[in-house]
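Reviewers of the previous submission asked for a worked example of the structure-prediction workflow described in the proposal, so we include one complete record here. The input consisted solely of the amino acid sequence. No template or homolog information was supplied to the procedure at any stage.
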Amino acid sequence: MALVMKSECEKCDTPLPPHADNARICSYECTFCEACSNAMSGRCPNCGGELKARPRRDHAIEVPPASPVPGE
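From that input alone, the workflow returned the following structure tokens.
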């Protein structure tokens, strides 16, 4: 499953396009801008997880569906 690229900060609504360098996410894909992440000491207010730099997505690609598991 591909990473969900949320389009804005969950706290201040700053736009965060897929190629943004200032997006921060936790392991549950909660998304915040760098300024809000810094203000929250790098901790997600939803789950308490660590906020890390979100990978950039410079262009859209089509993700093929998962292959069926043999024997199922």
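The mean pLDDT is 86. We consider this example representative of the routine output the project will generate in years two and three.
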